[in-house]
Structures are given as C-alpha cells and as structure tokens.
Amino acid sequence: MSAAAVEKLIWVLVYGGLLLVGLGIAVQRSDAALGLGMIVFGAIDAVIGAVLIWVRSRMKAGGDS
Prior knowledge:
Distance between the termini: 6 Å
Structural class: mainly alpha
Largest sheet: none
Number of domains: 1
Shape: rod-shaped
C-alpha cells in the first residue's frame, strides 16, 4: 500500500470516526442502544486511524511499503 493511500485512509478513518461519535451522542437521546453503538464504532474507527498514523510514520518516505 502506498504512502498516499495510507494518508487518505488515515484522515477518512479519523474524521469519519469522530463524526460518528458526535452523531452517536445526538442519537443517544432518542435511542440509547443505537447511539451507544454509533459511539463505539466511531471510537474504534478513530483509534484505527490513530494507529495508522503511527504505521505511516514508520514507512519509508519515498516508496511503497
């Protein structure tokens, strides 16, 4: 996987996860189970994005890894 593809995936996961957490908090007022599920999955997405930031920092700058 190229470095550019990893960088795109990082930001999609981080921002998508945080958006899902925010929506989950809003939805939780009307449906607690659905809201909690959205919060959990959003947090997992954001954590995976953070781990990919670390993975990207370990990749070589010029090539595919």
